[in-house]
Structure formats: structure tokens, C-alpha cells
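Figure 2 data, in text form.
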Amino acid sequence: MRPRLLLLPALLAGLLSGQSLKDFEKKVTEFTLANGIHFIVVERHQAPVVSFHTYVNVGSVDDPGGRTGLAHMFEHMAFKGTQTIGTKNWPEEKKALDAVDAAYTRYDAEKSKGRLADSEKLKKLAAVVEEAIDKAESYVEPNEYDRIVESNGGLDMNAGTAEDSTEYYYSFPANRAELWFLLESSRFLQPVFREFYKERDVVREERRMRVESSPQGKLVESLAAVAFSAAPYRNMPGGWASDIDNFRRPDAERFYHEFYVPANITIGIAGDVNPQEMKRMAEKYFGRLPVRPLPILKLTEEPVQEGERRVAVASPAQPFLIVAYKRPDQYSKDDAALDILAEVLSGGRTSIMYKDMVRDKQIALAAGAEATFPGGKYPGLFLFYVAPANGHTIEENEKEVYRVIEEAKKEKPDEEALRRVKTKLRAELIRKLASNSGLASELTTYFANFGDWRKLFTELEEYEKVTAEDLQRVARTYLVVDHRTAAYTFVPPEAAGPAGVLAGAQPGAQQ
């Protein structure tokens, strides 16, 4: 049961004190296998369950050129099985999968001729590809991995892809922990990218639903593409449509070999476990993975932005505005102050933006800020977003956002607001750590990003040191016109009725 909000400040002061961290450390066991996989084990014996979280330090920023969205494909390949799970006849299935690759190679060779390609030959080759895919899929035992997990009491099996990471997670009864070690290590040791083209179609459909059919999805994608002229954050995890359409299974195998190396993986285990048993099983099962070198980082640095950028997306739906400013990565000394600034400006009903734009002036249905977008590993964006209220324009709301920003540069927030935000951030940490799954997730994330899971706790100490003057300073330093990108939807003329003209007005640049 969660503690009452009124009691949180007192509870948090004790729970997250230096002594508390020392007590927590006693429950944590860490070890790194000879091949480089790092494990973080937390004992929690309140219930006979255990949560597992696998964090792979690879995301859409690592997508190769012309193959954006490839990292995301691994989320869909996650639980397709191995050479022994998910197949009716592995030797024959392997031959069939190789035949698909060979058929696609012939198809691609003809297609690469461009205007000189023989259209009739392409049709025939495409038919051969489809026939080969159907044969390969005839050897698949659908969802066998899922059935094994569920029949042994496994819950919440899922995966997720972001700009900076790919994560896999589920929970088991404590007496089935060894089964997890066997299953998870096997799919890294013997991955089989079966049903690849079926899942590629699913990924393509996700893009249609989340981006192409979503005004806000289009807007966010356009914002990233314009705000970043070179850095890999300009590509969203879903990938571009033409890249998805041209994925091939060998592309995935090359990507896996480069990035899914043991030293690029962190695993969190939280629950009713014996740490020594976890280490024994880790060495038995994950120790089988061969040592491979870490991937070479090929990051293109974003050049300095020297002027405001603007992008408009036509949409007859609810108008939406995003204003983003360049900011440093999560390792910056100003990261904590930027987090606090975002909360002071938009953290709930007591925040400046809510009271000003939603409650008092009623020009917006929603207004907020996000300190880190789309990821924190590399320099990114500090952004503001607004959904204008009926009868109020994008331009009106954009001007008000800039007024709020200028006010933040001139006036220090009161101490009560600052204390309220810091208490809220502490409360959010408690809620994250309330479950085994949340704990395993947070510890792996902080270790992979900062080299030490303790950053999860010491970050609160950094928040405590942030002053009102710090908020003024970072606002003045980073929320500047030359480093700004404004993205907004507008109603195209043919779709705008008498009442829609103002709502769809295209605002000019504001100072």
C-alpha cells in the first residue's frame, strides 16, 4: 500500500538518507561475467516472485544509414524462439530461411537496376520470395516461447525500443528462476529471426497508425527531423517507411552481431532470490555467450544551430504546438537544474504553465514541458507542448509560451514551489521502486547510462542542491531564440471553415 502523500516528505527523508542507501546496498549483489555481461541482483523476500530486466545499450541512434527502425525490429524479434524453441524442424527451417534470403537477393539485384529493371521479372521474383516466405513459416511453431513462459507462471513479458536502448522484461515465480536463465540466455546464444517479414509488416503498420495517421505523431517526427540536422536523434525509433519496406533478415543478423554483445548488456534481477544462486546460474547459462568487442560508436555530432527553425504540418484535427530548445546531454552539470525547471514550469496543477495557460487564461487545454527529449545519452532538446483551447490559436499560445519563458529568466521561482517539486521527484522515485519490475528496470537503466546504479539515489542529492538562481541561469543559457525549433499543426485552406481559419493560422517567428 502506498503511503499517503501528506506523509511522504517525512518518509522520504528517512528512506533516502545516506544510512538508507547503505542499508539498500546490503541487499544488492553485483557481478560481471568474464564475457562482460553485468548483473545487478536485489533481494526482496516479501513474495515468492522475481522480476528480470535485460537492458541492451542499443537503440534507434544506432540504426545504420538506410535502415532506420532496424533497432526497433528486435523488439518484435524478441521472443520468436531459438533453434529448439518455436520450430517444428530446425534443419529444414534453416534451409527455408536461407532460401528466402537467396530469393530476396535476386529480387533486390533486379530492383537495384532502377528504371532499367524488368517489371515482369520483378513480379515473378516477388512471387518466388512470397512462396519462399510461406514455406519457411510452415516450419514455425507459433508463440511457443510465450506458451512456455505463461504455462510456468510468467507474467508481463514485453519489450520496448527507445532512441538509446532496447529492453526486455518479464516476471516469474521464484521457483522458476532457472527457467528464465535458460530461456533468456538461449535466445541470445541462438537467436533465430523467424517470421521476420511478417513482423516487418507489423512494424510498418505501427508506423501507419502511430505516425502517418496521427497528427501529433507526424508533428513529433517532423520536429526531430528539423531540429536535428545531423545527429542521429533526428530519426525516431519507428524508422522511415521506405527503410522498413526494405529491411532484410541478413541486415538484422549483422546488426545483432555488432550491438548485441555481452559487454553491451546489463541484467537486473529483483525479488525472492538467493544472490549466490543467481550468480551460479548466470555463469552456467549466460557464460556460454562468446566474448565479442563492443561496437564502435559512429556518432555524428550536431553542429551549432545558428537561428530559429520552424516546421508546419497540415492537419484538420486538434491543433498542437511544440517549441524545443537545444540542450546538453544527461551528463551535463546542468541536467538536474533542467529537470527541476521543467517541473516548476509544468509539473501538475500547481505549475506555472497550468495555472497561467490552462486555469486562468484558458487559452490551452493542456500545456507542459519536458526536460529531456528524445533521449539523454547525447545532446537533445528541452521542449514545451501546447494543445490550444477551442477558439484560441497556435499563435496566441506560442506568444504565451515565450512570455512564460522570459518570466522564468527574470523572476526566480518561490522557495515553496521549489520545495514542492523536489518532494514530488522524491515521491516519484519511491513509486518507481515500489515493485520488483520497477526496481530492476531503474537499476539497469542507471547502471547502463552512468556506470553506477547508485546514481538513481545520488541524483536526488543533486536535485536538492539546485537553487532558484540555477533555474534562472539555465533558462537564460539554453532557452534562447537561436537554438529554438517551433513545430505546429495548421488547418489547410481547403479544410478550414469559418471557425477554423484562426485556429489554423500559421504563426510567424516570435522573439
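Caption note: Residues 90-111 form the longest helix (22 residues).
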